[in-house]
From TrEMBL:
Gene this chain is encoded by: buk
Catalytic activity: butanoate + ATP = butanoyl phosphate + ADP
Subcellular location: Cytoplasm
Name of one Pfam family that matches: Acetate_kinase
Protein name: Probable butyrate kinase
Species of the source: Alistipes onderdonkii
Family membership: Belongs to the acetokinase family.
Keyword Nucleotide-binding in annotation: yes
């Protein structure tokens, strides 16, 4: 009998759960959460017990006994900056996830894993959380010492997709130079230099191209005027940056599929906004290529929006001169979590200690 692994990926409106027997998926569920259900909780951390019971109920309804588990692994949250890798969930990590300075559903991943693992008598892990930080020092400095650049990006999917691509073309990730763009509700574009992400935009609330829900880099003077205009609260301004920026602000939707439909119907504003988003992504890819002196083995597009032909075609037209463009649509985060748990269970690596 092989290792049985439960992977948990909490999002803002759903909790995705998968059971694997070694590399073989046996159950893949998306537990949806309505706006009314979410509204019952003041803070995301307050949803912990509710989501845990929802997961346990779903597993029971599908006839699975958690005592069969070998390990539980959750999506990593906004802990302190750490190098990439697999980490066992310990007391220090649970404390930091519970008291995270920024709210995000991913903060529940390690906590849910830890609680269910404790019930099953096994260990809990996270892998490559969004705060993976391998940036070179020169990439951290902005134009003011009070505003350093931060590494917050789609580390799990970026790392897994980069390794998958290297395996497919027969090169070693730790010897390759890659530009990887994760295209989702947030967009992160990273320079993977010989196994380390040496530069990347802050995809949560910082910089880079605008995205379906995020504003990305903004003209600094205009943004300062807006902040002090008295028209908005701090929370409203933060929402402009993450949640109500990007496509939502311009077009009232976070769905690139809907935007494509509007373009097909002749909506020229939708076309301009979509092209502007793709233009920003292409410029960021160029910037990451420059961070590696132009020596790039591949440009990789991944994430949900990599399914969109309009977006992919635009980026290919603007970036194929840098390196061959390869497309890996979707996020594959549950599969990536399981792969990380397996290398620990098989003794290939020793999990890192969060302290």
């Amino acid at each position: 009998m092989g290792f049985k692994i439960l992977a948990i990926n909490p999002g803002s409106t759903s909790t995705k759960v998968a059971l694997y027997d070694e590399e073989r998926p046996s159950l893949d569920l998306t537990l949806r959460h309505t706006a009314e259900q979410i509204a019952r909780y003041t803070n995301i951390i307050d949803q912990l017990g509710w989501r845990r019971e929802m997961i346990l109920t779903a597993l029971s309804e599908h006839g699975f006994d958690i005592m069969q588990l070998s390990a539980v692994i959750g999506r990593g949250g906004l802990v302190r900056p750490i190098p990439a890798g697999v980490y066992e969930v310990n007391e220090a990590m649970r404390r930091d996830l519970t008291n995270a300075t920024m709210e995000h559903a991913s903060n529940l991943g390690g906590l849910l894993a830890a609680e269910i693992a404790a019930m099953a008598g096994v260990k809990a892990y996270i892998a490559d959380p969004v705060v993976v930080d391998e940036m070179e020092d020169v990439a951290r400095l902005s134009g003011h010492p009070d505003c350093p650049r931060k590494s917050i990006f789609h580390a799990l999917n970026q790392k897994a997709t980069a390794r998958l691509h290297c395996d497919r073309i027969g090169i070693v990730y730790e010897k390759a130079n890659l530009v990887v763009a994760h295209l989702g509700g947030g967009i992160s574009v990273a320079a993977h230099k010989q196994g380390r992400v040496v530069d990347v935009n802050n995809a949560l609330d910082g910089d880079g191209p605008f995205a379906p829900e995020r504003a990305g880099s903004l003209p600094a003077g205009e943004f300062a005027d807006l902040c002090f205009s008295g028209r908005y609260t701090r929370r409203e301004v933060q929402k402009m940056l993450a949640g109500q920026g990007g496509l939502v602000a311009h077009l009232g939707t976070n769905s690139m599929m809907q935007v494509s439909e509007r373009i097909a119907q002749g909506d020229e504003k939708a076309r301009l906004v979509a092209e502007a988003m793709c233009y920003g992504i292409s410029k960021q890819i160029g910037a990451m290529a420059a961070a590696m002196c132009g020596r790039v083995d591949a440009v990789i597009l991944t994430g949900g929006i990599a399914h969109n032909e309009f977006v992919v075609r635009y980026i290919e037209q603007h970036c194929s001169f840098i390196a061959p463009v390869s497309v890996y649509p979707g996020e594959n985060e549950l599969e990536s979590l399981v792969a990380n748990a397996l290398v620990v269970l098989r003794g290939t690596i020793v999990p890192k200690v969060y302290a």
